[in-house]
Amino acid sequence: MKEITREGVSYMTIRRLPQYMPLLRAALDAGDHCVSSTKISDFFGLDPVLVRKDLASIGITGQARLGFPVRELIGGIERFLGWDNLSEAFVIGAGNLGRALAGYGGFGQHGLKIVALFDTDPEKVGKVIAGKRVTDMTKFASLVERLRVPIAILTVPPEAAQDAADAAIAAGIKAIWNFTPTKLTLPDAIIVEQVDLAASLAVLSSRLVSATRTPRQYEEQPVNDM
Question: What is the pTM of this model?
Answer without folding.
Answer: 0.67
